[in-house]
Amino acid sequence: MKNYNFLFFILLGISLTNCGNTKKGENSIFTFDNSNYKQHYVAGDALSLGILNPNSKEIDSIIYYVNDKKVGTKKGNAKLDFKLNNLKLGYQYLKALVYFGGDNSEATARIEIVSNVTPKLLNYKIINTFPHDTASFTEGFEFHNDTLCESTGLKGKSYFRKYDYKTGKIFKQINLDSMYFGEGITFINGKLFQLTWQEKTGFIYDAKTMKLEKKFTYDKDIEGWGMTNDGKYIYQTDKTEKIWKMDPETQKMIDYINVYSGDSKIKAINELEWINGKIYTNVWTKDAIAVVNPTTGAVEGILNMSGLRKFMKDITQDDVLNGIAYNPKTKTIFVTGKNWSKMFEITVSE
């Protein structure tokens, strides 16, 4: 990796994780032979699947699984070479079902696939600066029909607002019930979707009238954080390294990716924005934006936004960067933070 990759670790608060840890199946008399396993793998690597037989059992056959999907069968105690293709970044769970003497036993293990992409350090240029309501605990930030929309958090202070970003004039505001802590928003298919934090409840409004049409319950046991969409599917975060993919028609989670920068997962990814086929995401408590490949989860670029703080003498370190809104009309990006006094219109380049 290049020298400036050390900066990525500082900016994103990446935590290194162990991998290649073998987990024995309960009461298993076999274990995976992980003597040649690497700490990390990347897509395209080959993995030799085999088991240790310390009690010298006469093995009839072995069925090998990766993430509970059967990948091959071998007679006796033969190994299986498996190519690590078309798998998500993150942990891969291995299983061997061993048949011997009319009985069977399982061996389990896991490995970790990481990104082989070295993120680019991106630059930004401030085009304009506008005032931002310091009472806004920003959670969601998005343009809709040339109008800036924002959702905020904190119980009793959560709302959704459409407003003129140049003057601060509010066109429409919907306050959430005090039992809810508001989170991310996104517009899709003529609807506005809004998340809540730990209440596991989402709201669907008519995008024109802002009339509430439906409440829905998350179909996974997760928190609600950031939201964006690609025109067909919704993507949302849950405080971990995952970005979930939701069908807006059913509100069901149909897939997810794990976000990795190099060989480290990025946890606590927050507000999201879909920009030119990539997902831009804030990282909780970090003055940085990661540019993520939505198919693989690999971080392809990093924006160090710490320089914005010098323009605001009235915020603290607790007032974190959170809010990314792409304006397709101007092809510029608006960024702000929780309780920030300013929002910044920027362009991004390598």
Which secondary structure elements does this structure contain, and how are they paired or packed?
Elements: H1 5-12, E1 31-32, E2 46-49, E3 51-52, E4 59-66, E5 69-75, E6 80-83, E7 90-100, E8 103-113, E9 120-131, E10 138-144, E11 147-152, E12 159-163, E13 170-175, E14 182-188, E15 191-196, E16 201-206, E17 212-217, E18 227-229, E19 234-237, E20 242-247, E21 252-258, E22 260-261, E23 264-265, E24 269-275, E25 278-283, E26 288-292, E27 299-304, E28 321-327, E29 332-337, E30 342-349
Parallel strand pairs: 9-27
Antiparallel strand pairs: 1-3, 2-6, 4-5, 4-7, 7-8, 9-30, 10-11, 11-12, 12-13, 14-15, 15-16, 16-17, 18-19, 19-20, 20-21, 22-23, 24-25, 25-26, 26-27, 28-29, 29-30
Notable characteristics:
Immunoglobulin-like; 4-stranded antiparallel sheet; elongated; Methylamine Dehydrogenase, Chain H; 8-stranded mixed sheet; 350 residues; mainly beta; 2 domains
| N-end to C-end Cα span | 17 Å
Q: What summary fits the major beta sheet?
A: 8 strands, mixed
CATH C-level of the largest domain: Mainly Beta
Q: Please give the number of β-strands.
A: 30
CATH superfamily of the largest domain: YVTN repeat-like/Quinoprotein amine dehydrogenase
CATH topology of the largest domain: Methylamine Dehydrogenase, Chain H
Mean pLDDT value: 91
Anisotropy-based shape: elongated
Rg from Cα: 24 Å
Strand content: over 45%
Domain module count: 2
List the quaternary state of the chains: single chain
Global structural class = mainly beta
